[in-house]
Each structure stands twice: as C-alpha cells, then as structure tokens.
Amino acid sequence: MTDDVVKRLSRELADAIVVAVAKDPGVEACYEKAQVAGYSMKVSLEAVVGFARGRAEAASSQPKPPSVRTPEAMSSNDRRFLRSLRIAADEATHT
Predict the structure, then answer these.
(1) What H or E segment, with its residue span, contains residue 46?
(2) Which of 39, 36, 41, 38 lies closest to 84, judged by CA?
(3) Left, alpha or beta for 85 (phi > 0: left; psi -120 to 50: alpha)?
C-alpha cells in the first residue's frame, strides 16, 4: 500500500470511531451530565492500526485479532472509562 492509501484508510477508521463513540447514548449522557455540572469534556482515544502486505497475510482467510491491553495491564481509570462506554473488561483475573 502506498502511504497515501494507508493515511486515507487510517483517517476513515478514525472518523468512523469518532462517529460511533459520539452517537453512543452512554457517551452523550456523560457529556450532558458534565455540561449540567458546568464542565466541558474532551475525550482522547488511542488506537494502534497496523497494515501489512505480504503473501502470508493475503493467503490467510482469518484476519488477525487486534492487539489489546490485557486486564492485568489496565489501570482503574482504564476500567472506569471502558465501563462508561459500556465495554466490560474481564475482571475475573483481578482480586
């Protein structure tokens, strides 16, 4: 892939994520609560997107799962943020 194609695909993915998060009722409710309390909020999300080209990747019928942080590597703030987005982190490994 050329750099322009990678940049375009990455931007499209980022835009889709922004739209999906912004339309989430839970996220909208959090923003509204903050505004009522006199605060404004800014949320930054970090995503790692990788592109690979090669025979092994092209021949594979199953896409590789994305790399994610394990529950052991998540802070309490990470878990709280995920819960606010209604994403459950596997907390069975935590005591």
Answers:
(1) none
(2) 41
(3) alpha
What is the residue whose two structure tokens read 């375009």? 8
Query: Residue 94 has what pLDDT?
Result: 45
Instruction: Read off the pLDDT of residues 65-94 as tens digits, 9 standing for 90 and up.
Output: 655 555 566 777 777 787 788 776 665 444
Instruction: Tell me the C-alpha distance between 59 and 5, whole Å.
Output: 21
DSSP secondary structure string, 34-87? Answer: HHHTT---------------SHHHHH-SSPPPPP---GGG--HHHHHHHHHTT-
pTM: 0.44
